From TrEMBL, chains A, B:
<dbReference type="GO" id="GO:0000976">
    <property type="term" value="F:transcription cis-regulatory region binding"/>
</dbReference>
<dbReference type="Pfam" id="PF16859">
    <property type="entry name" value="TetR_C_11"/>
</dbReference>
<keyword id="KW-0805">Transcription regulation</keyword>
<dbReference type="InterPro" id="IPR009057">
    <property type="entry name" value="Homeodomain-like_sf"/>
</dbReference>
<dbReference type="GO" id="GO:0003700">
    <property type="term" value="F:DNA-binding transcription factor activity"/>
</dbReference>
<feature type="domain" description="HTH tetR-type">
    <location>
        <begin position="1"/>
        <end position="55"/>
    </location>
</feature>
<dbReference type="InterPro" id="IPR001647">
    <property type="entry name" value="HTH_TetR"/>
</dbReference>
<dbReference type="Pfam" id="PF00440">
    <property type="entry name" value="TetR_N"/>
</dbReference>
<keyword id="KW-0804">Transcription</keyword>
<protein>
    <submittedName>
        <fullName>TetR family transcriptional regulator</fullName>
    </submittedName>
</protein>
<keyword id="KW-0238">DNA-binding</keyword>
<dbReference type="InterPro" id="IPR036271">
    <property type="entry name" value="Tet_transcr_reg_TetR-rel_C_sf"/>
</dbReference>
<dbReference type="InterPro" id="IPR050109">
    <property type="entry name" value="HTH-type_TetR-like_transc_reg"/>
</dbReference>
<feature type="DNA-binding region" description="H-T-H motif">
    <location>
        <begin position="18"/>
        <end position="37"/>
    </location>
</feature>
<dbReference type="InterPro" id="IPR011075">
    <property type="entry name" value="TetR_C"/>
</dbReference>
C-alpha cells in the first residue's frame, strides 16, 4: 500500500494522489484504505513513519570529517535520486499538515540516530567536550537541503564536502559548545 | 493585483488560489488577469520577481558577525511573521514550477546582494583572502530555513545567532577559501 503511495506520488504528483488511485494501484478495496488511513494525509504520514522504522545507522569511518562526508553523500543521493521519491515526499509535506508532522518526526529520528557521530568525535578529541550534536549535524547537512530542496539549483561540485568540512572547522573552533546563547 | 495574490494565499492557501478569486479581490476583470499573467503560476512568479525589485541592502554593522547576526534576524523575522506570507510563498513554490523558478531567482538575487558583507570582512582581515561569499552566506542562513521551513519546528532560542557564529568560525578557519573541491 505504501509502495503504491510512493509510486503514485512520483509518477503523477500530489494533485493526482487520492485514496482511490492508491487503492486501485495496490489492488485493495477503497473502503479498506479509508478505514485504516482516512485520507491522503494519513497515507503520507504512514510512508514517513515507515521510512524511519528501519535499522539505519550513521556512517562510522573513524573521523568526524569522514562520517559527515559519508552522511552528506547519503543526503545528496536521496535528494537527487531518480525517480525523485524523496523530493516528492518533501513537496507533499507542504500540502498535508499530517505529512508535515510525520516528516518532522522522521528528520528528528535521523538526527537523533546521528548523535553517536558527534559523541565519538568528542571521545577522539576532534572537537571540544560539550559539543552539542544537533546544531553540528544541522550545520553540516542544511546547506544541501537549502540548495537542492528550497533554491532548487543543481548541486554544485563539492557542495556536500564543503558543508561537511565547514561544520568540522566550526565545531573544532568551539562553535557548538556554548550553552544555548541568547539570540542577540 | 500582487497584493491580492499575497492576501489570498495567506488567508486561504494555494488550493483556493485562482485567477478568478485574485481578480475579484483586486476588483479587476478576470480577462485582464488572464491576458497578463496567464495562470496562478504566472501571478506567483510576479510576486517573487517584484519582491526582489527593491532597494534592499544587507546590514553593515562593522563586523562579519554583526552583519550575519542582523541578516539572520531578518530571515527569522520573515519566516515567523504573522500572517505567514513568506512561508505561504515558499509552500506555493512546491506547486508551481514557474513560482519555484522565480523563488530561486529571488534567493540568488538576495545572496548576490549580500556579497559585500563578505568582501568587507576580507578587507578588515576577519576572514582569509579568497573567502567565497556564497557558501559562507548559505552556511550562515541555511540552518534557519532547514529548521523552520523543512522540519517545521519552532525556532529554538539562539538558533539564528548560533548559525551566524558557526559560519564566522568556519570562515575564519579557512573553510570557504578552497577552490571548488572535488566532492569526495
Amino acid at each position: 500500500m505504501l509502495d503504491a503511495v510512493r509510486a503514485e506520488l512520483v509518477e503523477h504528483g500530489y494533485d493526482a494522489l487520492t485514496v482511490d488511485t492508491v487503492a486501485a494501484r495496490a489492488g485493495v478495496h477503497r473502503t479498506t484504505v479509508y478505514r485504516r488511513w482516512r485520507d491522503v494525509g494519513g497515507l503520507l504520514a504512514d510512508v514517513f513513519d515507515t521510512a524511519g522504522d528501519d535499522t539505519w545507522r550513521p556512517p562510522d569511518t573513524g573521523s568526524l570529517l569522514g562520517d559527515l562526508l559519508a552522511l552528506n553523500d547519503e543526503v545528496l543521493a536521496a535528494l537527487t535520486e531518480r525517480p525523485p521519491a524523496t523530493m516528492a515526499l518533501i513537496a507533499a509535506s507542504f500540502r498535508s499538515e499530517e505529512a508535515a508532522r510525520a516528516l518532522g518526526r522522521f528528520w528528528e529520528d535521523r538526527y537523533a540516530r546521528c548523535e553517536p557521530v558527534v559523541r565519538r568525535a568528542v571521545a577522539r578529541g576532534e572537537v571540544p567536550a560539550g559539543t552539542r550534536a544537533r546544531p553540528l549535524l544541522i550545520s553540516a547537512t542544511a546547506p544541501l537541503y537549502h540548495r537542492l530542496v528550497l533554491m532548487r539549483v543543481p548541486a554544485e561540485p563539492g557542495l556536500a564536502a564543503l558543508a561537511a568540512r565547514s561544520a568540522v572547522l566550526a565545531a573544532s573552533a568551539g562553535a557548538f559548545t556554548a550553552p544555548e546563547p541568547g539570540d542577540t
